[in-house]
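Two folds, back to back.
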Amino acid sequence: MVQLAKNRQLTVLALLLTEANKVVSVGRIIDAVWGDAPPVTADKQIQTCVWRLRSAFERAGGTGLIETARGGYLLRLPEGCLDAQVFEKSMLRGRERAEDGDLGGAVEEYRAALNLFQGRPLAELESPAIEAVAAYWAERRLSVLEECLDIELAMGRHRELVSELRLLVDEHPLREQLRGRLMTALYLSDRRADALAVYRAGRATLVSNLGLDPCARLQDLHRRIIAGQPISSPQPQRARYATKIPAQLPSDVGDFTGRAEHLEWLDHELRKGSPTIALIGRGGVGKSALAVHAAHRARERFPDGQLHADLKDRRPQDVLHGFLSALGTPERSIPADLANQATLFRSITAGKRLLVVLDDAASGAQIEPLLPGGSDSAVIVTSQSGLVETPGLAVRQIGGLESSDGVQLLARLIGNERVAREPENARVIVELCGHLPLAIRAAGARLHTRPTARLDRFAEQLSDETRRIAELTYGSLDTGARLSAAADRLTLQERELWLKLSIPDLPQISAWVAAVVAGGSEDEAQRLLDKLVDHQLLDVVTENQLGGTHYEFHPLTRLRARQLADVELDHEELASALDRLVDVFSWLENQARHPAQAMSAPDAIVQIGPGLLRDVTQRAELWLAQERSNLPWLHKLAIARPHRPPLAAFATPLPVPRPGHHVA
């Protein structure tokens, strides 16, 4: 035990202790002892102080602790003999335990570290230099105490901490983080009025002392308490300490065009707190660009960061591993299995305000583990699947651009002057692109490389259906691949029906048509049609007056399906399907127009449900009216196949009433 009087020796020792195992210059020691007015003999007096300290240490059995170094002195101490070193080690062990989810063990380590403080550090010394060190350690203690309090609040110790937090707020009335923790502890202890009173007192103190209102976080907490909304305990400070604030959003689309109504809806959903928003639409319709653009507009409302993942061909556990890493989770703490990864992700994100963008989800099962915990975060999902199995989604169907917006996008890509010279041809190009932003961008890229090409010539090239998909593909702007990506997720039976239905140019497809083409029952065909609609490969036109539903192809989707059909389908099998369609249609039309005229039913008629047969005989005029748009195409198909020739014989497009369509 070394006992020293309260004199300059104690100041010198304190400075050497705070810089243990480091050289402290004589100049710093002089400043610590005398400040700006050192005596002429300051150097000599410091030498005397050091000599007396060495003598005191030697009498206590500590020899050679203070070394003379060039320009100063060094106090040599073994690791772990200072309270400050023990404090730091205990605090680090507490943080490691918090990272590993051992919150109880973390609190024990934190409290052991904090118990090393006995009053204000270095309180008996009046040196400004030492007071600065004391202020550092006082702040250090308070910061670590806040980490510990956050962990205890996360453990649900709200009532137990109220008294301690009140004392801390009284001691540090301008420290808004502590006031927020006290408000949280009171509110979660069912003491809402007391929590609001703490806010009012804090606001009065801030206004009186600083002329400032409380910070945005405290005001937001106040609003949530007034509204009686649920709030979460603070995330343990260690998690925030380790957590990076991710900013993973892709760059915003510089020439983003249109979508005003969709953006307004997205802003409304994000502001009202919809946790998961789904943008559904076919490939190339611009869902991803819309999601990213909306996310950039809203990013300020999510101060804890933004996460982004392209889910195409990726396992949820791989995405979660990346998310956890981006949020600062050490590699050793990331579980290997999906269930535990998802649990950890929800725990880490509970109470945070994160915006997560999940692009190209294949199913609800793929996104479910990727949803953050708590109610303050939001998720925007894009998908070609309807995600109908996922509960609680706010769903928005995304279609093509309006003609005016499509023309504006084209003008941004190729220049206003070219579009202004040929505005009608620009509109035709947008129409032939099916109003899809991806296809318009591909067309713009083609025209950009052909600066002297006239728009009418390019529109003429696009009018050739055998060339259109190729002309609308440029580098990564692969319209065909994007349109058919969802088809890769179909079963073999669903894919075959989709390809077969693309061959005849029927403006509207009924369940009975699908049944005949597929060679199965109408009920089976309806289930297949539902899947095609869910994957955005067919569109629902309208429900007809007879209670059925009509479907149609997007023009570019039909062209892409025909390309694939030419490679994948057996031509003889396809010819048989078209034969069945001609036979059944001819019989149904004859029954509707001439019910008294006997006509032998084709074998395939057994695939038609009794409801349709009843409609054809009992409500013939209504049935003929709802099939009116199909009649010319079915007649042409029948004319093209009088002797059931091989598929190649009728692959040449026939002249038809509507431009851009053909009958196979």
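---
second:
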Amino acid sequence: MQEIHWIEQGEPRSARWHSEAGNPPPKRVQVADDTMNADDAYRLACEGTALLWRGDFQNARQLLQALARRADHKKAKGGKGSKARAGKEAANATEAFHLHRQAQSQRARTLAMLLIPVEPGYRIPLRRAPDVTLACNEAYGRGTDAFVISLRELQGLIGAHEWRKAGVPLAALGERIHPHYGVFSPVRGEYVQLVADAPLPRGATDLAFDIGAGTGVLSAVLARRGVRRVVATDMDQRALRCARDNIARLLLDSQVELLEADLFPPGQAALVVCNPPWVPARPNSSVEAAIYDPDSRMLRGFLAGLKAHLSPGGEGWLILSDLAEHLGLRTRAQLEEWIAAGGLKVLGRLDARPVHPKASDASDPLHAARAAEVTSLWRSIMLASDAGWSSLAARRAHNPKVTGSNPVPATRYQKAVAMQRLFSFPTMKPILLAVLALPLLHQPVRAETAHALAHSLNAHILASASATLALEKWCADHALAAPARIQARLQRGSDKPASAEQRARLGVDAGTPLKYRRVQLYCGAHLMSEADNWYVPERLSAEMNRLLDETDTPFGKAVQPLAPYRRTLAARMLWSGSQPVPDALFEHSAVLYTAAHQPIAEVRETYQRSALPLPAGR
């Protein structure tokens, strides 16, 4: 146990030192209160003298803000010893990164010099101090002894508690994820969207692995996409507790299993997903371990071990930003070498541009790298030579009819790879879909085929922020119509008053006007769904209300300027998989929210048989 020591009222004192970042206790400590001015405090902090606060808590917060302003002003001015103008003075992006990190570290050390005492039971013995008992219990567990902590760290703990209560809305999930203290928050939703959009490989709906679970967000997305069993791993106990909490909140406990493991769980899966730290550098705190990975340890470990944990024909998904490449910390050639060394082949890549504020902040020392950054989902498979059929002897052992050097019939794995390559050419896709459909014209549709398609459509909609856009993408992917555009056909003259429960979910009282809309959504001649929609017209613009009143515009498209997302209330399959295929496949109930988290509509949707790419009349 580390201790901090100081002199107060002429007597030596000591207390346990607490630092989540692992910072050593300061060697020099001076008692301070409301009489200390910011200039003196900043000078002492820069010299390495910590200030143990005995004054008003809110005054301590104001003093910390004053110290931050002085630190930032010194950086901007390029004062003595400052690394602040690192981005301009650096010879290249790599040097700019290291100077920026040094400046960040120095700033953090200076601001960490303002200390707060905490008594047993997490009580702060200062005037106007907040009650931090719940926040500390969440982060540290039950507290029985006194300690001293940096005010800056305590503020981070309080902020994490608020994030945990409010949650982070994710359009790709249509839900909120609640990060715990010390677990990195999925505030950059573009990588989550990539996992929601990537086509699932065959067999992935049976079992998938999520390596490095974190908050559990990617496991939740996979489960919502219809993966019946997800095994997620992490080494950090806080992350595992956080993921369990989120999975339980989302009612996905029966689908997601969490294990403490370094990278992979036992066995093989058709889909193995990993979102490792993106930057090969040393983290300065526990939460930074989700961003910085010394020597790309986790990335290289994942690529080296992936082949052994992929079932034949399965895919590994690596979610990775190329920021490290723009900073000169890793090259694309190195990444490709590690992929090849793991016996893997890249099937394709999905890319997304970041939308976080730093990407457009020209004052950021790393602006050039951040502006060029792309986040990618790399789809990798085992090389054909590693799929278990590399030697003629092995083929003969499996099939005695194989002789000499005659060509061997392709395995299912090799056929899948060949088909994937053909489908990668846009001009080939409609031709191949037409050719593949020909045999179906002469035989009944197999129930399991149609049932699998229904589950796939269900998962696509559950994973999307907009049912309309999900249906359009489904139409395009399955060539149901050209162009693949969803059109609404209003069922005019119908009305269903909203229930008291619906009004409560929409946050309106009995006197607030609600409008009802019943529509059929078509893609070409295909009836995709029938929907009942209750919406709050006063929360929409005049143009949105006009479109909904006077045109057949789908609701999701009419309100698109509000950047809506949906939160599913219920999802129910109506078909068990037996023949014949019924008209109604499954039902969804959901509430639609604006980007500002204001509810605007409740929908009940019934998805139809004709949404499936099946031969007519079968």
